[in-house]
Each structure stands twice: as C-alpha cells, then as structure tokens.
Amino acid sequence: MAHSVFCMSCYYMSYMEIEVAGLFTYPIKGCGGIAHYEIEFGDNGMLHDREWMLVDSDDKVITQRTHPAMARINTLIYGGMLLVSDPATGICEIALETENPRPDTEREISIYDKTGTAVAEDPEASEFFSDFFNEPVTLLHIKQQRRFKPQYQHAGAGTGTAFADGYPELITSISSLDALNAHGQTHIPMDRFRPNMVLAGELPAYDEDYYRVLQIGALTAYIVKASARCTVTNVDQAPGILEPGSPVTRALAIDRRGRGPDSNKPGVYFGQNATHRLEPGVSVALGDTVEVLERAAERNFQLI
After folding, report:
1. Residue 125, SS3?
2. 261 vs 214 pLDDT, higher one
3. What are the sequence ranges of the domains in the chain?
4. DSSP states of 216-256 as a string?
5. What does the radius of gyration of the chain's CA atoms come to, in whole angstroms?
6. Which H or E run includes 180?
7. CATH H-level, domain 5-303: superfamily
8. Which of 21, 77, 91, 141 has the fewest CB atoms within 10 Å, counting from its CB?
C-alpha cells in the first residue's frame, strides 16, 4: 500500500523533542545483550550486533524460541575480544575477527528467506556452548551478509544484515512500552523486545508506526517495516525462562494485532525495523537528538 510522505523538519520538531535513551547490541543471536553509551555503525548495523549465532548438529539455528535459557548467557566486548560467561559454564574468550578460517568450516545460512554464509569459530568456543546446552552445537561467525528484498532497500543505505531475523536495527520507544503496560495485566520490561535503539521524549505511543526517515544524531535511519513479534517476547530475560500463558503476546493482541504489507497472516507488532545510510565511522550516543525527517499519514501495518 502506498503511503503519502511529507517533510517534518520544521513542523514536527516544533513541538516534539525526541532523544536516544537506550543503545543495545546482542553479539550472539539469542544470548544476552550489551548496553552502550555510544556505538559505531557498520555495513551490518551496530558493530558486532548479531555477528555470531549457534546451530545444532543439523545446522538449525538455535534461538530463544526453543532454548530460552540462552538469554542468561552474558556477553561483553573488551580488549578486542568477545567475552562470554555463564555462572555454571565459566568464561569463554572469542576473537572479534575470525582469523584464517578453514574453508571446510564455511556453510550457507538461511534465516527467514535471507541467505548468507558463515564460518565456524574455534572448536573451544563451540565446546563451551555445547556444555551449556548439554548437546552438540557450533558457534558460527558471519562471513557474507544476508540480503533483504529490493523494496526494503534505500539508495546509499545498507542492503543486508548479519544474523538478525530481518533487518540491521530494531527501534522502540518508551512511550509505546508505557501504553502497553497501561493494560495492567503484567509489567513488561523493554528487554523483552531486545531493541537496538530506544527513543524517549515527547512522542505519542506508537508514533513510530508513522516514521519513515529519522536523523539520529549523525546517523540517517530508514524505517523498513513494523516488527511482528514472536514468542521470544514471553521469555523472562534474566533467568531465561519462558513465562506460561504468553503474557506479552496477549497484551500486544489487545491493540497491536494487525497485518503487514507483505503478509495476510495476522501478527502482533511492537517496534520498527530499520536500516541506515552507510557512512564510515558514524556513531550514535545516548542523549543524541532524534529528528523525524519524513513521516507518513498512515501506519506501516494494518490494525485488525
């Protein structure tokens, strides 16, 4: 569905002040995240965001959908290393760059119809995770990014992602979370949605449904599509336990049930997927001002 878009550089910001209130990366898909004061952006999104992932003995991707306990695996980037820890399993150090990977460890990876390639990390890293899960798993590092469809690409912006489900960034807002929690069924923390950027300020709940282009500090971001949420939102991230009764999904279904532009299947939506203009060395910091450069007259999904 086509949407009318107009410039908001004067009108919109004359009464709305928005800033960056949270920055997060998740180096290993499905594992614990890292909060940042400032983060640099590269071809795949925030540096080192979802550059690694785990697969089982059948090369199937391991996520919190089937292994919620992986949420409690802590990650930290320090001294050129990715440090991974768990109280029971210990600590594992992983180099940020895979040096001289063996050609026989390379494999094709497809997630949600986006295909790329990955290489296996040091066997010691895979052994660490195998001990945690009590089953054989392999840690993979991104080699060739996964491309998304041409209709979601923008001139001068990235055209692919590493191991994120769909797109390089996920943007949410505190106003929208407050509206969700106003239903009063349960308190839902923002970490249930595993965002990359959290916006705060004088913006109405779910106003991000109408955003199309944002200036976030020095970064230009393009909203790709609303994010349809899966069962992972029902995982309590601290203990890594799936809550019974799907409380977050049920809360979203009250007023966030809808259909996206490329699917007739109903879903529940929270947050916006985004990509960004590729400019070497660009970073975003907490407190950076967010300006809505383009805004549509309609949401980018249909409420039902």
Report:
1. helix
2. 214
3. 5-303
4. ETTEEEEEEEEEE--GGGGEETTTTEEPTT-HHHHHHHHH-
5. 19
6. helix 174-181
7. PK beta-barrel domain-like (2.40.33.20)
8. 91
Helix (H) or strand (E) holding 254: helix 247-255
Question: CA–CA separation, 238 vs 73, rounded Å?
Answer: 9
Question: 153 with 159: CB under 8 angstroms?
Answer: yes
Share of the chain above pLDDT 90, in %: 81
Residue 282: CB atoms within 10 Å? 16
Selection from 35, 11, 12 nearest residue 22 by Cα: 35
Provide the token pair at 94.
């992983």
> Which token pair is 98?
């895979």
Q: How far apart are CA 129 and CA 111, in angstroms?
A: 21
pLDDT by residue (tens digit) across 215-228? 999 999 999 999 99
Q: Of 161, 162, 144, 163, nearest to 153 (Cα)?
A: 161
Spatial CA neighbour of 88 closest among 53, 136, 134, 125: 134
CA atoms of 36 and 48, how far apart (whole Å): 12
